[in-house]
Amino acid sequence: MTVHSLVQAGRELSAWRETEQDEDPEARIEAAAKNLPANADLRAIIEAAIWDPEQDLPEKAAAAMRAWLERDAMAAVHWISAFQREYQSELFDDKLKRYLKAGGTRRLQEFIDAEPRIRDYLIGCASSSFGQDGGNSILLLAASLKSPQDRLDLIKGSYRRGESLAGNLATVRSLLDEGAAMEFLRYLVDPDHAGLLGEVQRAGFPESAVRRFEEDCSKERWGKGGVNRNNIDVMLNNPNRLGQPATWDSLVRSATWNSHAPRTNADFLIIVDGPIGLENVNVSSASGSIDFPRDQLSPEPVEGSEIPQELLAEIGNQRLLLEQGRLSLVEMVAWLKKVGTADEEMDRRATVIALDTGMDSDPVAALSWLKECRTDWRDLMGTVGWQRLPPEVLIGLSPEVWEKGSSFDRDLQLRCLQWLKSDPQAYLETVDRLSTGFAKDRLFRLGKEREE
Questions:
Q1: Once rounded to an integer, what is the mean pLDDT over residues 136-160?
Q2: Distant-in-sequence, close-in-space partners of 381: CB < 8 Å, separation ≥ 6
Q3: What is the Cα–Cα distance from 377 to 386, expressed in whole angstroms?
Q4: Integer Cα distance of 15 and 60 in angstroms
Q5: How far is the C-alpha of 13 from the C-alpha of 29, rounded, in Å?
Q6: How confident is the model at residue 202 (pLDDT cuts 50, 70, 90)?
Q7: Which of 64, 108, 247, 266 could form a disulfide with 301 if both were Cys (CB 3.0 to 4.6 A apart)?
Q8: pLDDT, tens digit, 9 for 90 and up, residues 75-92
Q9: Dihedral, 416, 420, 421, 423 alpha carbons, nearest 10
Q10: Where would I find the beta strands (DSSP E) of 376-446?
Q11: Which helix (H) or strand (E) holds 149?
Q12: Distance CA 452, CA 450 (A)
């Protein structure tokens, strides 16, 4: 995609909006998708429409996305992945749901393999789409997935009532390994599900999990308003507020998907120069949450790898100390390695967990530290999220990450378009202060052409 094609797509979008059409919106979108030329720059059309202030999703962009999925689904999904990690938007949910369902059971696994970073989002779309046809459709889709955890998350997101589970528990059990089966029963706990006990017992769930299910579903264990007394202590004392086991890998996964809203431009004073381009950037402190999102934990831990509740709480305390400036990133990594597992992956896990926290309190310092201590800093930064850096800082990054056609290059260009729309003068002034070179020329040209 070129800047010229993006600008041209914006002009085409304006012409489209001026055309009065009376057909049903979905019919218009379908017709428009079919009529788009084979050589149309679909990505440019979509990105030009994203910033349209008049509509949440102009119909031409919706048509372009539908056509893109049909013509080059993997390219479209890679773009959706970057867009979702940046903006957590629902703009393209309907188009993706429609495409997933039209492809039967094969497309979800293909997309998860291609873009594991938006696994939860993909499973959520599939659950919503296939769930409309009832439990059998969900079970057929779950059977097509390779991972027991993926199957579990799809099933959990689709079954909400005991009546839809009755008669299907044996099939559910056959799709899950032992750990996932135990987690499923924990999810199922509800006094209204006590009548499923007999079927649970016959379905072959682990005996210990069945006993716990029977105890937890007992009505006398629940207080008024449906509060499970068994979980009160866990919910109050567990930093992730989930009341389910956590592992070191689950903390890393939480960091991987922990995309916070971008800081405001006013929070950052940019003075970018030098070979690294970060040393002179001052960033105001911004506190972040240490809670872990409900849908972003890993599966049932392998036996022996579960983090004790006391240690999990202490990890939360260490995160807080780092956010408050009372603990350094080096100290946190050393502490995590000391209390963590004795395997070669622990150093990477500790770095990602510390980096995730550091990105909330001082992203520039966190990135500078990462570049000094890890040769694989680009990969780790991509894991935690380039999008958590403000555009001002992204612009000042060393040219070593500015490789033509790279995902960083594309993500940065999309981010800069957002900044251009909100504050073009500040954008151009910031770019003007850059040292002469490839980055300055490219970004300055982007700003000028966007103005035109």
A1: 85
A2: 355, 367, 370
A3: 11
A4: 10
A5: 14
A6: very high
A7: 247
A8: 888 888 887 776 666 777
A9: 130
A10: none
A11: helix 148-156
A12: 5
Contacts of 413 (CB under 8 A, 6+ apart): 446
Position 237 pLDDT exceeds 80: no
- Per DSSP, 159 falls in state -
Q: What phi and psi, each to the nearest 5 degrees, are found at residue 406?
A: -75, 160
Give me the helix-helix angle, 329-339 and 309-323, nearest 10°.
170
Name the residue type at position 371: K
If one counts every other C-beta atom within 10 angstroms of the C-beta of residue 68, the result is: 25
Whether this prediction's pTM lies above 0.85 is answered by: no
CB 56 within 8 A of CB 50: no
Nearest Cα neighbor of 329 from 303, 353, 304, 293 is 353
59-71 vs 93-102: helix axis angle to the nearest 10?
Answer: 30
CA distances, 332 to each of 111, 255, 320, 395 (Å)? 36, 15, 11, 29
- Closest-CA residue to 118 (of 142, 143, 98, 93): 93
Half-sphere exposure of 1 (CA within 13 A, CB side): 24
| Distance (Å, whole) CA 253 – CA 384 | 9
- Residue 140: CB atoms within 10 A of its CB come to 14
Cα 449 to Cα 350: distance, rounded to the nearest angstrom: 43
Q: Read off φ and ψ for residue 268, nearest 5 degrees.
A: -125, 130
Residue 287 near residue 360, CB atoms below 8 Å: yes
CA distance 285 to 86: 21
Q: Say how far apart CA 183 and CA 408 lie, in whole Å.
A: 37
DSSP bridge pairs for 282: 269
Tokens of 55: 């509509």
Spatial distance between the Cα atoms of 300 and 182, rounded to a whole number of angstroms = 8
Give the chain's end-to-end CA distance (angstroms, integer).
Answer: 18
Cα 16-94-155 angle, rounded to 5 deg: 170
Q: Could you tell me the pLDDT band of residue 303, with boundaries at 50, 70 and 90?
A: very low
Nearest of 161, 127, 132 to residue 145 by alpha carbon: 127
Give strand pairing partners of 228. Answer: 222
